[in-house]
Automatic annotation (TrEMBL), chain A:
Membrane-related topology note: Multi-pass membrane protein
Family: Belongs to the CcmB/CycW/HelB family.
Keyword line: Cell inner membrane, Cell membrane, Cytochrome c-type biogenesis, Membrane, Transmembrane, Transmembrane helix, Transport
Regions that span the bilayer: 21-41, 53-71, 92-120, 126-153, 160-183, 195-217
Role of this protein: Required for the export of heme to the periplasm for the biogenesis of c-type cytochromes.
Gene name as annotated: ccmB
Domain of life according to the entry: Bacteria
Protein name as annotated: Heme exporter protein B
Cited InterPro entries: Cyt_c_biogenesis_CcmB, Cyt_c_CcmB_bac
UniProtKB/TrEMBL annotation, chain B:
Keywords: ATP-binding, Cytochrome c-type biogenesis, Membrane, Nucleotide-binding, Translocase, Transport
Residue ranges annotated for the ABC transporter domain, each copy included: 3-201
Name under which the protein is recorded: Heme ABC exporter ATP-binding protein CcmA
InterPro entries: AAA+_ATPase, ABC_transporter-like_ATP-bd, ABC_transporter-like_CS, ABC_transptr_haem_export_CcmA, P-loop_NTPase
GO MF annotation terms: ATP binding
Organism: Rhodoplanes tepidamans (Rhodoplanes cryptolactis)
Record family assignment: Belongs to the ABC transporter superfamily.
From TrEMBL, chain C:
NCBIfam families hit by this protein: ccmC
Family: Belongs to the CcmC/CycZ/HelC family.
Name of the protein: Heme exporter protein C
Tagged with keyword NADP: no
Membrane topology listed for this record: Multi-pass membrane protein
Amino acid sequence: MTALRALLVRDLRIALRIGGGAMMGVLFFLTVVTLMPFAIGPDLALLRRIGPAILWIGALLASLLALDRLFAADHDDGSLDLLLMGRAPVELAVAVKGLAHWIATGLPLVVAAPILGLFLNLEPAGLGAVVLTLLVGTPALTFTGLIGAALATALRRGGLLLPVLVLPLTVPVLIFGVAASNAAVVGPVPFGTPFTILCALTLTSLVVGPFAAGATLRHGME
Amino acid sequence: MDLIGSDLACVRGQREVFSGLGFRVAGGEALLLVGPNGAGKSSLLRLIAGLVHRAAGTLTLDGGDPELSVPEQAHYLGHQDALKPSLTVTENLAFWIDWLGGDRAALAAALEAVALAEIADLPAGYLSAGQRRRLSIARLVAVSRPVWLLDEPTSALDVASQARLAALMKAHLAGGGLLVAATHGPLGLDDARELRLGGTA
Amino acid sequence: MAWIDLANPTRFLRLVDRALPWLTALTVFAFAYALNGAFGAPDDYQQGATVKIMFIHVPAAWLGMFCWGMMTISALGTLVFRHPLADVAAKAAVPLGAAFTFVCLVTGALWGRPMWGTYWVWDARLTSVLVMFVMYLGLIALWRTVEDPTRAGRAAAILTLVGALNLPIIKFSVDWWNTLHQPASVVRVDGPAIHPSILIPLLAMTLAFTLLFVALHLAAMRNEILRRRVRTLRLLQAQGARGA
């Protein structure tokens, strides 16, 4: 337990200090959402209708693009070797790193979402639904992304490989996240149905992500 | 305590680095791996540390903790220092103590042993290569593990630091520990056995 | 001569220490005068008391732009004249510019709610300010990513200059984009010509805000110089300990 807590604290510290990327995700999120109306047009009624989708796409890209250095940074400076030689299972180490990354990158997205929702003229019910679905859904994005981050590290390839590998895996999360947000505003399905499925997807990813990523890191060692 | 490897083989990227390799190191003993570049010194160390896949053979630590695997009882000092530049010297070492299962009470003494106590509060990014190396070595002192795996441990160290490292290694051996080191030069150990890799064994 | 004198950070620090109390007093006085005028100004016949948001909104918008202008001059100072205080000035200005632009956006949203019935419309002027705000945040991110201040200073200076060239283009594009799409529901802010009873407090408020900016900027520059000295001392400490 001491070891895992130390890892959590270390990763959060690195993210928050100079050179860390804690606020970068939110900034990217803000930029994407700001650009959308330039492509779509300033029609507030239209923006309100597709607002949840814009926010979800922005959050999806922001949480995945920030992931590619998660294990690569530790690999480059030799830390990953020592992390694998600890007494805690690799899967738990990976899960803790994912948790730290979500707190530093995913959680700020959830906090920023209602402010960005105002730009898109979302009504209070819609704002609440988007925030709730993002709160439940962004961990699924991060933990699915762990697999891609581990693969990119094991294969010594950064950049766009991770999104290319991971984006298809996030399709179900996107579908049910946006569906639940829309259901809260326009129906016809009740909010609970897609939201429950979203919760189930998140719980699954919390288990599958660390195991797959842990196995990848272990076998990625030549 | 004996670290015994028998019939070990290592394959990296379709190429067989070595095969049929055996060795035995007893407690209090040092084994130096010597040989030309590419002979597999680093690979053997990483194999013992569990960081490289073992294609064949067995590896056991007789007299060690039966609950733990060999890598969990070993320190690995690789080419990289495993430090985060934005964390301070103390924070870096404290994390590795917690992660590798040591006691934080040993932190101050370990920094003292590598002569970094006076800059304990500086970010590791401000340190020179030699200082970073010493901070990395402090990890071995702070957390007690019986097997030390050292890959070119003296690189970037000045003469005084090399002498200090030699003293630390002697103390480790005197305490019943063992070490395996890949090296091109002398380490300052009195009676170390050599294992020649590559060419005529 | 004075400019060259100021190139010496120590002399600059001494000047700041002497000037800052006076500047603070002047700012307080200016705010007292301007606030008195602002509260005394008549309510708008259409908007009622909400029009008073203008007394914060307009000066904040002015400073958001003023700050980028100042950073542009500093960027030239960094790249062309290699003035040692230029990138200190640029770095100290970024959070201030972002903060004033943020105040401008927030007050604009609060003003928009009673006027337009919504917190935000993609009006050309608002949108340009939002883009500027994002660019400020980008600069902050740049300063935070690179630890070495001289390297970060060069990169930030180039980005600031590119931004200064780009901001008019962005403004023009946004205007074009907006007239293309302009929905009929949006009411323009520009009312009839401003009456002197409002104009004078507004100008006083703008002056007070500018004084506040200058005071905060000088203090931030002082902090940045001290922060860099601490960094240098710690680097020296690491070097000194090397042989030990």
